[in-house]
Recover the amino acids of this structure.
Protein backbone atom coordinates (compact mmCIF):
# COMPACT_ATOMS: atom_id res chain seq x y z
CA UNK A 1 0.00 0.00 0.00
CA UNK A 2 1.35 3.40 -0.99
CA UNK A 3 1.88 5.70 1.97
CA UNK A 4 0.22 9.10 2.13
CA UNK A 5 2.45 12.17 2.36
CA UNK A 6 2.37 13.96 5.71
CA UNK A 7 4.25 17.25 5.75
CA UNK A 8 6.49 17.74 8.77
CA UNK A 9 5.30 21.33 9.21
CA UNK A 10 1.75 20.00 9.69
CA UNK A 11 3.14 17.42 12.09
CA UNK A 12 4.57 20.22 14.25
CA UNK A 13 1.32 22.22 14.32
CA UNK A 14 -0.86 19.18 15.01
CA UNK A 15 1.57 18.01 17.71
CA UNK A 16 1.30 21.36 19.49
CA UNK A 17 -2.50 21.14 19.42
CA UNK A 18 -2.61 17.51 20.58
CA UNK A 19 -0.05 17.97 23.37
CA UNK A 20 -1.76 21.06 24.75
CA UNK A 21 -5.20 19.44 24.63
CA UNK A 22 -3.84 16.21 26.11
CA UNK A 23 -2.26 17.98 29.07
CA UNK A 24 -5.39 20.07 29.55
CA UNK A 25 -7.48 16.88 29.77
CA UNK A 26 -5.07 15.32 32.26
CA UNK A 27 -5.13 18.49 34.36
CA UNK A 28 -8.94 18.43 34.24
CA UNK A 29 -9.05 14.80 35.38
CA UNK A 30 -7.12 15.62 38.58
CA UNK A 31 -5.57 12.16 38.47
CA UNK A 32 -1.98 13.30 38.05
CA UNK A 33 0.10 14.85 35.31
CA UNK A 34 3.33 14.20 33.48
CA UNK A 35 6.08 14.12 36.10
CA UNK A 36 8.30 16.39 33.97
CA UNK A 37 5.82 19.26 34.25
CA UNK A 38 4.78 18.53 37.86
CA UNK A 39 7.05 21.25 39.37
CA UNK A 40 5.61 23.80 36.93
CA UNK A 41 2.03 22.77 37.66
CA UNK A 42 2.53 22.89 41.42
CA UNK A 43 4.11 26.34 41.23
CA UNK A 44 1.10 27.48 39.20
CA UNK A 45 -1.32 26.06 41.80
CA UNK A 46 0.56 27.82 44.59
CA UNK A 47 0.70 31.24 42.95
CA UNK A 48 -2.45 31.51 40.83
CA UNK A 49 -4.73 32.54 43.73
CA UNK A 50 -2.40 35.43 44.56
CA UNK A 51 -1.34 36.14 40.97
CA UNK A 52 -4.32 35.36 38.68
CA UNK A 53 -2.20 35.85 35.56
CA UNK A 54 0.08 32.96 36.62
CA UNK A 55 -1.85 30.34 34.68
CA UNK A 56 -0.56 26.85 33.89
CA UNK A 57 0.39 28.04 30.42
CA UNK A 58 2.13 31.15 31.75
CA UNK A 59 4.04 29.02 34.24
CA UNK A 60 5.19 26.81 31.35
CA UNK A 61 6.56 29.83 29.49
CA UNK A 62 8.46 31.09 32.55
CA UNK A 63 9.83 27.69 33.55
CA UNK A 64 10.89 26.72 30.03
CA UNK A 65 12.59 30.09 29.53
CA UNK A 66 14.54 29.37 32.73
CA UNK A 67 15.43 25.89 31.46
CA UNK A 68 16.76 27.36 28.23
CA UNK A 69 18.94 29.78 30.21
CA UNK A 70 20.19 26.88 32.33
CA UNK A 71 20.95 24.94 29.14
CA UNK A 72 23.05 27.83 27.84
CA UNK A 73 25.00 27.96 31.11
CA UNK A 74 25.49 24.18 31.21
CA UNK A 75 26.81 23.88 27.64
CA UNK A 76 28.42 27.36 27.73
CA UNK A 77 27.08 28.21 24.31
CA UNK A 78 24.29 30.27 22.76
CA UNK A 79 22.59 28.84 19.68
CA UNK A 80 19.81 30.09 17.45
CA UNK A 81 17.90 26.89 18.11
CA UNK A 82 17.48 27.94 21.76
CA UNK A 83 15.44 30.94 20.61
CA UNK A 84 13.32 28.65 18.43
CA UNK A 85 12.78 26.38 21.44
CA UNK A 86 11.44 29.32 23.41
CA UNK A 87 9.08 30.12 20.53
CA UNK A 88 7.82 26.54 20.69
CA UNK A 89 7.40 26.85 24.48
CA UNK A 90 5.54 30.15 24.09
CA UNK A 91 3.18 28.63 21.52
CA UNK A 92 2.59 25.57 23.70
CA UNK A 93 1.93 27.64 26.83
CA UNK A 94 -0.57 29.83 24.98
CA UNK A 95 -2.37 26.83 23.50
CA UNK A 96 -2.42 25.09 26.89
CA UNK A 97 -4.37 27.94 28.48
CA UNK A 98 -6.77 27.99 25.53
CA UNK A 99 -7.35 24.23 25.77
CA UNK A 100 -7.87 24.39 29.54
CA UNK A 101 -10.61 26.92 28.89
CA UNK A 102 -12.18 24.69 26.23
CA UNK A 103 -12.29 21.58 28.44
CA UNK A 104 -13.45 23.47 31.55
CA UNK A 105 -17.20 22.81 30.97
CA UNK A 106 -16.67 19.04 30.64
CA UNK A 107 -18.17 17.31 33.71
CA UNK A 108 -15.63 15.64 35.98
CA UNK A 109 -17.79 14.73 38.97
CA UNK A 110 -17.52 10.95 38.60
CA UNK A 111 -14.54 8.60 38.75
CA UNK A 112 -15.44 7.10 35.36
CA UNK A 113 -15.44 10.52 33.73
CA UNK A 114 -12.12 11.44 35.32
CA UNK A 115 -10.56 8.18 34.08
CA UNK A 116 -11.86 8.90 30.56
CA UNK A 117 -10.45 12.42 30.67
CA UNK A 118 -7.08 11.14 31.82
CA UNK A 119 -6.98 8.31 29.26
CA UNK A 120 -7.91 10.71 26.47
CA UNK A 121 -5.17 13.09 27.55
CA UNK A 122 -2.55 10.34 27.64
CA UNK A 123 -3.48 9.12 24.14
CA UNK A 124 -3.43 12.61 22.65
CA UNK A 125 -0.02 13.32 24.18
CA UNK A 126 1.28 10.00 22.87
CA UNK A 127 0.33 10.86 19.30
CA UNK A 128 1.52 14.44 19.75
CA UNK A 129 4.98 13.45 20.94
CA UNK A 130 5.27 10.92 18.12
CA UNK A 131 4.46 13.64 15.60
CA UNK A 132 6.87 16.17 17.08
CA UNK A 133 9.66 13.65 16.54
CA UNK A 134 8.92 13.88 12.82
CA UNK A 135 9.36 17.64 12.71
CA UNK A 136 12.58 19.61 12.33
CA UNK A 137 11.33 22.60 14.37
CA UNK A 138 13.17 23.08 17.67
CA UNK A 139 11.56 21.17 20.58
CA UNK A 140 10.43 22.47 23.95
CA UNK A 141 12.97 23.14 26.68
CA UNK A 142 12.38 19.78 28.38
CA UNK A 143 13.72 17.90 25.38
CA UNK A 144 16.30 20.57 24.59
CA UNK A 145 18.14 20.46 27.93
CA UNK A 146 18.42 16.67 27.79
CA UNK A 147 19.59 16.64 24.16
CA UNK A 148 22.13 19.45 24.53
CA UNK A 149 23.57 18.33 27.88
CA UNK A 150 24.11 14.75 26.79
CA UNK A 151 25.65 15.85 23.50
CA UNK A 152 27.96 18.39 25.14
CA UNK A 153 29.28 16.05 27.83
CA UNK A 154 28.91 12.79 25.89
CA UNK A 155 26.51 11.29 28.39
CA UNK A 156 24.19 8.35 27.85
CA UNK A 157 20.91 9.83 26.60
CA UNK A 158 18.67 7.14 28.12
CA UNK A 159 20.29 7.27 31.54
CA UNK A 160 20.32 11.07 31.66
CA UNK A 161 16.67 11.27 30.58
CA UNK A 162 15.74 8.78 33.29
CA UNK A 163 17.68 10.80 35.87
CA UNK A 164 16.03 14.01 34.69
CA UNK A 165 12.55 12.47 34.89
CA UNK A 166 13.22 11.05 38.36
CA UNK A 167 14.57 14.40 39.51
CA UNK A 168 11.41 16.13 38.28
CA UNK A 169 9.29 13.55 40.08
CA UNK A 170 11.17 14.02 43.35
CA UNK A 171 10.99 17.81 43.03
CA UNK A 172 7.27 17.55 42.37
CA UNK A 173 6.72 15.50 45.54
CA UNK A 174 8.82 17.95 47.59
CA UNK A 175 6.92 20.97 46.22
CA UNK A 176 3.58 19.30 46.88
CA UNK A 177 4.46 18.77 50.53
CA UNK A 178 6.08 22.21 50.84
CA UNK A 179 3.20 24.13 49.24
CA UNK A 180 0.16 22.17 50.45
CA UNK A 181 1.30 20.05 53.41
CA UNK A 182 1.06 16.30 53.89
CA UNK A 183 -2.74 16.33 53.94
CA UNK A 184 -3.17 17.51 50.35
CA UNK A 185 -1.21 15.71 47.69
CA UNK A 186 -1.19 17.58 44.37
CA UNK A 187 0.26 17.08 40.91
CA UNK A 188 2.00 13.73 41.39
CA UNK A 189 -0.77 11.14 41.75
CA UNK A 190 -1.61 7.63 40.57
CA UNK A 191 -2.01 8.89 37.02
CA UNK A 192 1.56 10.18 37.06
CA UNK A 193 2.84 6.69 37.85
CA UNK A 194 0.68 5.15 35.11
CA UNK A 195 1.81 7.75 32.59
CA UNK A 196 5.48 7.18 33.44
CA UNK A 197 5.08 3.41 33.03
CA UNK A 198 3.35 3.43 29.63
CA UNK A 199 4.68 6.61 28.02
CA UNK A 200 7.77 5.14 26.34
CA UNK A 201 6.11 2.00 24.90
CA UNK A 202 3.07 4.04 23.85
CA UNK A 203 5.16 6.58 21.92
CA UNK A 204 7.05 3.77 20.19
CA UNK A 205 3.75 2.13 19.23
CA UNK A 206 2.28 5.35 17.82
CA UNK A 207 5.53 6.14 15.99
CA UNK A 208 5.52 2.76 14.24
CA UNK A 209 1.83 3.17 13.41
CA UNK A 210 2.33 6.64 11.91
CA UNK A 211 5.41 5.54 9.94
CA UNK A 212 3.41 2.61 8.56
CA UNK A 213 0.70 4.91 7.18
CA UNK A 214 2.49 8.13 6.26
CA UNK A 215 5.64 9.24 4.52
CA UNK A 216 6.87 12.35 6.30
CA UNK A 217 8.27 15.02 3.99
CA UNK A 218 9.20 18.68 4.38
CA UNK A 219 6.79 21.03 2.65
CA UNK A 220 9.03 24.07 3.12
CA UNK A 221 12.77 24.41 2.59
CA UNK A 222 13.48 25.35 6.20
CA UNK A 223 15.11 22.23 7.64
CA UNK A 224 18.63 23.40 6.81
CA UNK A 225 17.91 26.73 8.49
CA UNK A 226 16.82 25.09 11.74
CA UNK A 227 19.60 22.51 11.63
CA UNK A 228 22.17 25.28 11.05
CA UNK A 229 20.85 27.04 14.16
CA UNK A 230 21.39 23.87 16.16
CA UNK A 231 25.13 23.73 15.43
Amino acid sequence: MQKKVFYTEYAYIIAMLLNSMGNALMEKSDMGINMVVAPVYLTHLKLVDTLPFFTFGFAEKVFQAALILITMMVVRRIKLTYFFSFCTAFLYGTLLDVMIGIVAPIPDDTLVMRILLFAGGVLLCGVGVSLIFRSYVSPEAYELIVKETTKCYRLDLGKFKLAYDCGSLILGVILSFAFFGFGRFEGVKIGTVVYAAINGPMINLFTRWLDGIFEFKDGLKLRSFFEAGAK
Residues 80-103 form the longest helix (24 residues).
